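To: structure desk
From: M.T.
Subject: fold request, one chain
Message: Could you run this one when you get a chance? Sequence is below, nothing fancy, just the single chain.
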Amino acid sequence: MRKDRLYFLTILAITLIFVFLAIVTAQYFIKASANQLIEIQVESSKREANEISKMLDFQLENKIDKQKIIENLQNTISGSNSNTWFITVFNWSGQKVCDPDITKIGQSINSNPDLLSSLSEKNNSEDLYELLVNNSHKSEDYISEIIYIAPTKNSDLIVAANVNVNGIEIQMKNLSYKFYVIFFIMGILAVILSSLAVRIIGSRYEKQLELKNSDLTSELLNLSKLNTDLVSYKEKIGMLNDNNASEENSEKSKERILTYMRNELVPVLIKDIIYVYTENTITYVVNIDGKKSTSNSSLDEMYANFNPSLFFRANRQFIISISAIDKIIRYGNSQLKIVLNSKTSEEIIISKNKAAEFKQWLNA
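Reply: Done. Structure tokens follow.
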């Protein structure tokens, strides 16, 4: 249950983060795309208006009747799509002479001059969207705006590029709808794929943890058994000391050894020795009270004088006493660290090769 709750919270967090990013970035992408689309359409409308203006000028220069030119142009644009971008022609008095909707011919143009001047000054992708949307009319009578004019030379005719604001608003709504649908689909896919990824990664991680826990449990049981054997061995040694006092007087169980402390000869009881070690070819004997003395004997010679059931040769440098061992700790790669119940701070490490012998010594 705890794992399922963790997975659920992780997926919920991913979902919330994606929703937040989608809300923040969707508006930016919609606006950027709308600006680019509008800019392309405006440039196309400008180019078309300029071309028609040049064509009218060319025909007038060739003495073609003005009324005939207007009729031909009206026949060309009549019925063309005026839902978004379209071309009209009006004269200096502001009356339409050509329009895709023939019923509007003769009507006065009614457009926002501020929009026209703004577009002339700020014709870039960052402004067009805001200019068109913010200046759109809500009245049914004013659904189009003039965005560019191209006067015809030596004539009172002016070609105008128009935009149907309501149509542009519908275009923008469709664009926004498509973006939100895309983000929604991407969100669902992201959540599903994230859920699968969390599950897969979580399962692998759990297996690794279970394997490590299993290894630690095994090591813990081994150490627990080892420390239990240590306690049992100490009890066994105590009983042997009580029942076999006479045997302790043998050659390998001498009660004391002779050591040196500076220039003094110091006899040390073997039962008070916690460990013996060598350093720089000098053999040191450490008592349970932490006092340290030296011996002329080598570590091998010292070990030969000790009862092997009471002392263990931990490594080339140390001999330790069973009575001085406080606890045994797992150390490194299958090594053991001996903690002594004394005032000393030495750390005695038993190597991997010696660990098996040490365990056998405890089980003896």
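Reply (cont.): The longest strand covers residues 144-151. Let me know if you need anything else for the meeting.
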